[in-house]
Every structure is written in C-alpha cells, then in structure tokens.
Amino acid sequence: xxxxxxxxxxxxxxxxxxxxxxxxxxxxxxxxxxxxxxxxxxxxxxxxxxxxxxxxxxxxxxxxxxxxxxxxxxxxxxxxxxxxxxxxxxxxxxxxxxxxxxxxxxxxxxxxxxxxxxxxxxxxxxxxxxxxxxxxxxxxxxxxxxxxxxxxxxxxxxxxxxxxxxxxxxxxxxxxxxxxxxxxxxxxxxxxxxxxxxxxxxxxxxxxxxxxxxxxxxxxxxxxxxxxxxxxxxxxxxxxxxxxxxxxxxxxxxxxxxxxxxxxxxxxxxxxxxxxxxxxxxxxxxxxxxxxxxxxxxxxx
Length: 301
What we know:
This protein is an all-alpha fold. The protein has helices spanning 9-14, 21-47, 51-72, 77-100, 106-128, 136-141, 163-181, 183-191, 193-198, 203-225, 230-242, 248-273, 277-295; strands at residues 152-155, 158-162. It is built from 13 helices and two strands, in the order H-H-H-H-H-H-E-E-H-H-H-H-H-H-H.
C-alpha cells in the first residue's frame, strides 16, 4: 500500500473551487487571517530578536486551556480564551522575572518557562482527561476543517460567515490599523531604543504592548492552527520576506501576500494527502521559504 495517495487533478485542484466552494472559502479565509495576523506581529518579534517568545507562548497555552476546561467543563470560547490568555501572560511575566533576577540568559529563560508550563499542561490533561471533554488534537493541530460547520454571525438577516472568521478577521484588521497608525514609533523603538527615548517614545511600553498583542493573536489563532503550528505563522512570512527586502514596509506587504499562498497551497496539499490543513499550510510555508532561499533575487526596496 502506497503511503502517498494517487493524485487526482480534479479532486485536488478543481473540486475545492467548484462543488466544494461552500466549505473552501471559510477555510481559506480563516487560514489567511490567522497567518496574516501572526505575520504582522511576527515581523516585529523577529526584528526585536523575540521570536522565541512567540514559540514559548504557543507551547505554554496548554495548562491554561486544560484548567479552563477543568473549571468550566465546557467547550465555550470564553473560558477557553481567558484560560489561554492568562497562561500566555504568565509565560511573559515568568520569562521577564527570571531574566531580571538571575544570570540566566533570555533564550535559556524562555526554554525553562515554556517547557515547564507545557509539561504542566500535559500532566493536567493526563490526570483529568477522564473528567473533562478536551480534544487534545484540536489543541495541538487545530480544527480548520471544521470552520465551515461552526455557527455563523447573522446581522440584519445578512450571514457574515462563521464566528471564528469574524473574530480572527477583526483581530487582523485591528492589528493592521495599529501597525499603520503607530508605524513610526514602532520602527524607531524596534531599531534604536535610545533614539526613541530621546524622541519622547517609551520603548518599554511598545515592547510590552507588542507582547500583549502577541498573546492575544496567538490565543485567538491556536484553536484553528493549533498551539504548536501557530508559531510557524509567526516566523515563516517574516523570514521569507526578509530574504527579499530590507525595507520594513515592503517586508510587511510581502508577508501578507505570502499568507494568501500559504492558505491556498495548504488547502490543496491537505486535500491531496487527506491530512491536517494547518500542518499542510506550514509545509507550504516551509516550501516557499526554501524556494526563495535557493533562488532569491537581488534585494529590492
């Protein structure tokens, strides 16, 4: 028996855009919003050499999710979101605390915190899995395939699509507005904190603000792409765009454009292999990164 299924061009390439369109567009849109939202904040994390903080938060959401399920005994988004957000903020606080009150370097502090919290989450799930209805596959790998089945938002008789899409879309456009409105302060505080202070900008405020936004984006995205795979969406768009340009505005634009390809290629790959859509999106992102890395053109502005 072959591990790779037989390729059927009609099923893989045509059906998602024709007979399966009602299921295709929510998955594509949600995939794009998640990837684009993560890419916007991820670019600044990469430039600030804080990319591993996103990795730490994505791994550390597990205990907050498990405890929220244990207390609420419900799949409702509100307790899950609050538990995950509390876990994310605890991760940031612990990392900062260890760095300031010890000789441990930042990368080691990040490793200590996220492995400890992730392990704690696994222990909690192991101990109480029989008492709560917790789908660990959803936590780890996401549920993009189920987006079309979720409750829609209907306002004035108009169906705006599944609620998760509305939520993630609002976060993406809100984050885009923040980046546009605070572009110059973010730029200066990212590349030259000393100059930012001289200009009356508070670098620490923007640092912790970005960290808070990062936590919110990750908590909102993990349910679709999983608490592990979400970190790929933080890294791949920015890293790939960085190979093509040194100009931050151009990098941000390329990053968002790449997210369109991640969603489309990921959907077709998942249809072909019958695998996790979020996982397929990450494979597509790594493939595009490899292509750009090998065949990149001279950098442009």
